[in-house]
Design brief:
Strand order of the largest sheet: 5-4-1-2-3-9-6
Largest sheet: 7 strands, antiparallel
Shape: elongated
CATH architecture of the largest domain: Beta Barrel
Helix content: under 10%
Strand content: 25-35%
Number of helices: 5
CATH class of the largest domain: Mainly Beta
Distance between the termini: 29 Å
Number of domains: 2
């Protein structure tokens, strides 16, 4: 049965794109400003507007990419403008597109690129939507979701130019680079309003400019969502079925084949820290209240791992066992966490949130001895709030986004009745637990 609440012009579930959406940040000393939007089009390849990054072509270190869904930041390795990028006498920026090379890791490396289909015909007044993290609304939280905003295609900017199109999506400064969707894929990219362009005689900000996604071909961006195009009206394939089939194709090829000509032409450095693998001794909803919990993680690069439980503003340190101590994680070795001090970690009925933080350097300490309460009744409880801890993480990431990863994930929850007889652990004789990737939210 079709989704009765589906809105034409909006993808079925915009939230699935959250890990592929980013903000472009300009650094100026201690000040940072969000100057545009970016989105993942292929492994390590992000797309944004050319005018957003043009001033930083020779100083890419002044830019950072921040993914609101995780809070992770990345340095920009290289920027390339569209070959036909230019500014006309009427101030119109033509072929306003650029690509950025960013060495992604953690949940961003695993995130699926946004679906792209070339050759789609855009019709006047057809519904479109922009999916992004709006800067002007200040929509940021520990688990943010992107906003899908509805509008319409208004037509081509000029009859002889099919690449530059007009739309009426209510976007604001800082939204340049936002991907614009029809029902299934990215069809354009928002470039700005038209009121500031006197040569166009469009004195209103309700009419805005976008670039047709096909213009990205010249930047080496490749189509990754091949929809079945009908031969005739009688043999037309259902758009929903076509989307499902195409999504399967994206899943198969998305990890390594997209934008290969561009990626191969650049020298890509491996991330300095890699994601960790996390597992529990049971599926997260198979515990009874008060059941002891075993958490196991395995690092894949030398790093320093911290595990916190966050409950509103309250923060409890679960690992390492003493505040201020940092233990180097050896690649390939598993570490088990089961106690806070000498008190076993138990599972409760309320859902828990675990914050994992992975640091590259020991000198980037998250905690000081004074950050932890000293009385035994509050073992593990910190004197700092969740916001203060996140501020510390942001400061380290702002200094160098390549030396820290962090993610919030759901912990186990008690849903089973307490057994009357002792039950066998779900861990097998080898002590292996069901693995979960660090990318989980």
């Amino acid at each position: 049965m079709e989704n009765q609440h589906k809105t034409s012009g909006v993808p079925e579930n915009p939230d699935v794109f959250s890990a592929a959406l980013a903000n472009v940040i300009r650094l100026d000393g201690d000040k940072e400003t969000i100057i545009g939007q970016a989105w993942k089009a292929a492994p390590n390849l992000l797309v944004t507007c050319g005018h957003v990054v043009e001033p930083f072509m020779d100083s890419a270190k002044s830019l950072q990419i921040k993914f609101p869904s995780s809070g992770n930041r990345y340095a920009v390795r290289e920027v390339r403008l569209h070959p036909s990028f230019g500014r006309q006498a009427d101030q119109l920026v033509t072929f306003d597109a650029a690509i950025m090379l960013v060495d992604l890791s953690g949940p961003e490396r695993e995130a699926r690129a946004l679906p792209i289909t070339f050759g789609k015909e855009l019709k006047n007044f057809q519904p479109l939507s922009a999916v992004r993290y709006p800067v002007h609304l200040g929509q940021y939280s520990s688990t943010p979701v992107p906003l899908a905003q509805l509008g319409r295609m208004l037509g081509e900017l000029r009859r002889t130019d099919s690449y530059h199109i007009l739309h009426d999506l209510a976007l604001a400064p800082g939204d340049s680079g936002s991907p614009i969707f029809d029902d299934t894929s990215v069809v354009a990219m928002h470039c700005g309003d038209t009121a500031s362009l006197p040569g166009l005689n469009l004195p209103t900000t309700s009419i805005r400019l976008a670039l047709w996604v096909d213009a990205l071909k010249e930047l080496g961006v490749e189509e990754n969502l091949k929809l079945v195009r009908p031969r005739s009206a009688r043999t037309a394939v259902s758009p929903i079925l076509a989307f499902c089939l195409a999504a399967m194709i994206v899943f198969v090829v998305g990890s390594g084949l997209l934008a290969k000509p561009i990626i191969d032409s650049w020298t890509i450095k491996h991330p300095q820290i890699k994601p960790i693998t996390v597992g529990f001794d049971k599926p997260r909803n198979e515990y009874y209240e008060g059941e002891p919990l075993l958490i196991r993680f395995k690092a894949h690069s030398s790093c320093f791992v911290h595990l916190f439980e966050i409950d509103g503003s309250k923060v409890t340190l679960l690992y390492p066992p003493a505040a201020g101590d940092q233990v180097v994680a050896v690649p390939g070795e598993s570490v088990t966490i089961s106690h806070i001090g000498d008190i076993p970690i138990g599972v409760g009925k309320d859902p828990s949130k675990f914050l994992w933080v992975v640091l590259l350097n020991a000198h980037d300490q998250l905690l000081q001895p004074s950050d932890r309460k000293q009385d035994r009744d509050n073992i593990g409880l910190l004197n700092i709030s969740t916001d203060e801890l996140m501020d510390k993480i942001d400061r380290i990431g702002k200094d160098d986004p390549q030396k820290i990863l962090h993610v919030v994930m759901d912990g186990p929850i008690a849903t089973k009745p307490k057994p009357t007889t002792e039950t066998k652990s779900s861990a097998d004789s080898s002590g292996q637990f069901p693995a979960q990737q660090f990318k989980e939210q």
